[in-house]
Amino acid sequence: MTENPIGTLSATSTLLAEAAQRAVRYLEEIQDRRVYPSAEALRGLADLGGPLPEKPQSPMEVIAQLDEIGSPATVASTGGRYFGFVIGGALPATVAANWIASAWDQNAGLRVASPVAAHLEDIVLAWLLELLRLPPGCGGAFVTGAQMATFTCLAAARHAVLKRAGWNVESAGLFGAPPITVVVSEEVHVTVLKALAMLGLGRDRVQTVPCDAQGRMRPDCLPRLEGPTIISVQAGNVNTGSFDPTGEICEIAHSAGAWVHVDGAFGLWAAATPERHHLTKGIAAADSWSTDAHKWLNVPYDSGIALVREPAHLHQAMAITAHYLDPCAAREPMQWGPESSRRARAVEIWTALRCLGRECVAELVNQCCRHARTFADRLRAAGYEILNDVVLNQVLVAFGDDETTQKVIDEIRADGTCWCGGTVWHGRKAMRISVSSWATTADDVEKSLTAIETIASRFR
Ligand SMILES: *Cc1c(COP(=O)(O)O)cnc(C)c1O
Fold first, then answer.
1. Separation of 46 CA from ligand 1 center, angstroms?
2. How high is the pLDDT of residue 84?
3. What is the pLDDT of residues 161-176, one digit of tens each?
4. Can you give the residue ranges of every domain in the chain?
5. Does residue 185's CB lie within 6 angstroms of at least one atom of ligand 1?
6. Which amino acid residue places its CA nearest to atom 14 of ligand 1?
7. Could you tell me how far CA 27 lies from the centroid of its own chain?
8. Which of 78, 105, 268, 288 is 20 to 30 A from 234 via CA?
């Protein structure tokens, strides 16, 4: 028997044990290191390059190089003091599940290629609908993130509104189709506009509705709705965390036969808490919802979820046929989303929901919201301006004029204790603190506040 030049199974187990040890060390050290990599660590990345290797190199050495050069150059967003964008960490159990799933290397596109992946999707789809207080029986797809979830939902919407107008868009395309009116708010997330661009609906032909002071769409400003229409609202404004009055908008929209989509990338998770689900009131009346599991559920990337009230619309927008595909009574994953071959994303979602239960999902969300409130209260008490009503996990703070705020943000990042983003809110530069990780403790908040206040006081 000749030896396999690519490797052996016995080498595999040593290699994976070594990788696991390195990964564990990375996570153990994460709380003690800078949140953003040092300039030196970033310069080190050059050593990963060079000419394309001609000869094989030992996997053990390659993994060591990846860890020794790569790990210090990572952003510690899975630690407790990263507050940039809206980026969750990864629960340890979901990292463990991800390792098992990587070892399985399942193709989750087809039930016959991975019964376990398909079965886990069936389970978590039902669980998620219950947890997020959405109608049972919705159709769903497991995609890369909220960007693709919105794309998927809006494809279902496009299908439905054109079907009602007697047009089959999947078969005939958009040339010659009845025009679709798309309504968004002036606070629409850019990923919705990108989805519209990808779907041939155009980012610039939307009708834009003004918002109130917290960035909520004003239902009294909706245009007259006529013909095929899609309205995209949001649950969780990326700056303020505010929620559009979706129930009210749905009533108006549905009386005109329009489709309502909810971008709920992180805000939809408020529905999972008894203390905050009132924020999502009326959201269950919508026609589709996009959300992320890699944000507030704290599973590893990539993990987004598209949900559609009327499963047939999603299925008809996404289904394909081929001679080698069996018609299947059970839910066939690839017939519900834009991708064919893909990883088994339900594995980590299942693990998170099993481990946390309804109770601890709620606690995870509530804990982040409490930390956000602490940031807001303390910074306000220190004399800085909080620009939003802190209803969720997002805090907008200004340290003075725009230039001062920018300088404070730059210094906080250079200091490395924590990392916060910048934004512009109603014409003013602001620092955005987003608390989205299970790993953030009261101690992390304390350390970060000390660093922020020390730096900001220098610019007084
Ligand atoms: C993060 C976010 C998105 C995009 O999500 P991805 O997971 O990056 O694709 C869309 N909408 C809102 C409101 C978000 O916060």
1. 31
2. 97
3. 999 999 999 999 999 9
4. 97-352
5. no
6. 265
7. 22
8. 78
Q: For ligand 1, say whether the CB of 86 is within 6 Å of any of its atoms.
A: yes
**Between the CA of residue 319 and those of 112, 240, 439, what are the distances in Å?**
16, 37, 39
Peptide bond into 302 cis (omega under 30): yes
- Which stretch of 72-86, 250-264, 311-325 has the lowest confidence by average pLDDT? 311-325
Mutation choice for ligand 1 from 292, 305, 436, CB with most ligand atoms inside 8 A: 292
Q: Please identify, by atom number, the ligand 1 atom nearest to the C-alpha of residue 237.
A: 13
pLDDT tens digit sequence for 72-111: 999 999 999 999 999 999 999 999 999 999 999 999 999 9
Residues in the chain: 460
DSSP bridge partners of 385: 398
- Residue 452 and residue 384: Cα distance in Å, rounded? 11
Indicate the pTM of the whole model. 0.97
The answer to whether residue 1 scores a pLDDT higher than 70 is no
Query: For domain 97-352, which architecture applies?
Result: 3-Layer(aba) Sandwich (3.40)
Of all protein residues, the one whose alpha carbon is nearest to atom 12 of ligand 1 is 265
- At residue 328, does pLDDT exceed 70? no
Confidence band, pLDDT 50/70/90 cuts, at residue 5: confident
Residue 47 preceded by cis peptide, ω within 30: no
The SS3 of residue 15 is: helix
